[in-house]
Design goal:
Chain lengths: 227, 227
């Protein structure tokens, strides 16, 4: 589904260059539940941003379903991001002036879904993440874990075929986190949605079919797990 | 050291009232390593904000070292926050235009510490949290866990007698999180700094001398632990 070939990512900082990712080679198959783990600062967010087409590599090739992303037009790439890829950001990136219904609904407005279908879909997702009592709250009127759940719901709203999640349970207690992971596992097994997520939590890693260990910008280990 | 007497906190949302905390009674002794745990949305951040004088209760009394905070002048309260209480926010609240040295140094500038003493103190803390190679980075040029560590270092810079930490290891891997907790434990045991922190992580709870269980805005349980 997704292939990274000799991918590197550098950041410029004044005169210094930070080599955040170095020569990454990784193939992700459709239907995987892939976990990326490693110490703070090792490159997980950088890698997920490249996979989600939110950022471009400094060198190397990224292919999504055989298409080389570097050769896509900006429009094709935007359609890809909107339709096929759902992204959960490490710091949520919710829209401050919209309440949680409007925040989750937003991608459906962008792809022109009809109003009644939007309401049905958004209500369903708000229910799944346990936020039905908080529909009118804006992001600054929510707890940290509630904002995280809005970001999770928003990523699912367009029925994407791939979800990329950056530490999706960092602000959730064990019980709430588990119920979210059960939803994701179900989508993965029943609808073959591919999940690629970073996490620091060993309980979350248990759900993965494969674990990629990252350290200082390089893949140090692959680990296959029972599904 | 800190006492909450029948404290309640309501939020107004349009016509609805959210009772985030209801009749909280809690005494915190000097030198405690107190953990507050509970499901997402149960009121941990709300409680920590009241304890840290970042917010005021709707009803009830909060006392800090015998002084009723409601009767303090704004100046006295600001001095308290600056000098005695270190706060680590759930979403860090770093200053975007300052690099990490300047971010950590900021409270020392506010209380007019001499420049050479500032440099000594900030360099020491940057070293403790493992960010010496990132001194010139601004917050948006850091990983999530690196930003969390800047927030942690900043809270320690004024040698406060109380540290209030809202999920201080949520974005840290197990190893980095442990090293930070060891630093806090050492400060607690050697310098009698009081720590009050919320967490979802059972490994972090292990460090606590007492655990307060919160659920739906009320204290459901107290649990004493071996130090
Ligand atoms: N400004 C606000 N207006 C209305 N409701 C609010 C506001 N801030 C918080 N709340 C609500 O108060 C409740 C408690 O929030 P709080 O942030 O204290 O939870 P928490 O225990 O820290 O959760 P988490 O573990 O998810 O961080 C939540 O249900 C939240 O929606
Ligand atoms: N814009 C930037 N400019 C310079 N360096 C950056 C920038 N963004 C990230 N970095 C650096 O790149 C490295 C990788 O960052 P990344 O955010 O991918 O780490 P991470 O594995 O997600 O960490 P965490 O677990 O703390 O979230 C870090 O050392 C970080 O300081
Ligand atoms: Mg990250
Ligand atoms: Mg909170």
């Amino acid at each position: 589904l997704l292939q990274m070939e000799n991918v590197s990512k550098d950041y410029q900082l004044g005169k210094a260059v930070i080599h955040a990712l170095k020569n990454i080679n990784l193939k992700v198959e459709k239907g995987e539940f892939l976990s990326i783990v490693g110490p703070s600062g090792c490159g997980k967010t950088t890698m997920l941003n490249l996979m989600g087409c939110i950022d471009k590599p400094t060198s190397g090739v990224l292919k999504f379903q055989e298409a080389d992303l570097a050769n896509m037009s900006d429009n094709a790439e935007a359609d890809l991001r909107l339709g096929k890829i759902g992204f959960i950001f490490q710091s949520f990136n919710l829209i401050p002036v919209l309440d949680i219904f409007e925040n989750i609904e937003f991608p459906l407005i962008l792809n022109k879904t009809a109003k009644r279908k939007r309401k049905e879909r958004v209500d369903h997702l708000i229910d799944i993440v346990g936020l039905s009592e908080f529909v009118k709250h804006k992001p600054d009127e929510l707890s940290g874990g509630q904002r995280q759940r809005v970001a999770i719901a928003r990523s699912l709203v367009n029925n994407p075929s791939v979800i990329i999640a950056d530490e999706p349970t960092a602000n959730l207690d064990s019980e709430t986190g588990k119920s979210i992971l059960e939803v994701m596992k179900k989508l993965n097994e029943e609808e073959k949605v591919t999940f690629i997520f970073s996490t620091h939590n060993p309980e979350v890693m248990q759900y993965a079919t494969r674990v990629v260990h990252l350290r200082d910008g390089v893949i140090s280990d692959f680990e296959k797990r029972g599904a």
